[in-house]
Amino acid sequence: MMDEARTRTVTIFLLFLLNIVIGGSSPTLSPVTENQCALYTLPLELVEGLLSFSNATSTRLESLIQAVNQRRSGDDVLSDSPSLDIFSKLLVLLLEKIEKEQDRFREEVATVSESLKWKSPMEDAVLATLNQMHQDIKGLQAQSKLSSPEHSVNSSRQTCLRSPDRPKDCYELYLRGEKENGVYTIYPDKCRQDRGIPVWCDQEGDGGGWTVVLSRRPLAQQVEFNRGWRDYKMGFGDPQTEHWIGNEVLHLLTSNARQTLRIDMEDWDNATRYVEYETFTVGSEKTNYRLYVDGFGGDGGDSLSYHNNMAFSTTDRDNDLNDSNCAQAYAGGFWYNSCHRVSATSPLLTKQISTKGINWSSWYSDRTTLKEMYFKVKELPCN
Q1: pTM, rounded to two decimals
Q2: Which residue has the higher pLDDT, 176 or 113?
């Protein structure tokens, strides 16, 4: 699977590189929907030729750079020749053109990703490879500009392989036969070998395989949700009681695979409602963990869409659209708009009409507070 993804990645990059060589423009990716999973397809007949072209081009380019550096560092009289200077300048121009086209191509990939609001694993491989190539080109440019000869091209790539005993989420655990509810350890970041995340897995309800990312329920001592940016980034609480999994983990989960979000609610009279969003994505910290949801279903009403495309806000980082700080006003971090129709992290209040407690306005338009609320995510299978 990794070889196939890498082959596609190299092929995509080579399409734009081939256009540079023949004087064309960078190609445009076309999303193709197949069983609700976005794929990027390329003409398979080009793969063999493009891979051969890639290997030859890379080898020749590195050889040329090494030759230039050897001539410049040597005592040969030709090292000061005008032709060598011209060749070096042309080489720099070529590398700059490649870098410019690469930046354009990377932006196109990112634009397609943003339009889909989620990234497939292959997309991540494309972006990672392009970023690595960007760094390699910087190194090649430095070499061609009279860098010391001992600086050689580093063409190595870091490949992070997930170990079979490091499940990325509760859905993977479910597929492996873990069918009982409980606390499990997951590894959303396959490149971090030292950090597992304890989470509550709902393996028995609604088809199983749900990773609980937020849990609110009555306790003798409630978990404090009135916290700052770092706590919401890293996560806090106890998966067995009240818990926020952390925005960084949410980003990892939703960028590695398409996720469905389910929200289960219960009021103080033990009535229940649920909602589901077929697509749920949390952006990186650079986007302030921006929220995207789509594909509403359920019997609780679509309150969360009011918060769609909002950045995350906390008491110490105000990203909402209100003149005041909504996180301070409602004592909890969330994707506030101006301010909320969903209040999931405010204090857990007994039954009363208040915007200061846990609310879902599409269920209780008068803002009657709720007793329990759970956010949980599950990978949407590609089948």
Answers
A1: 0.61
A2: 176
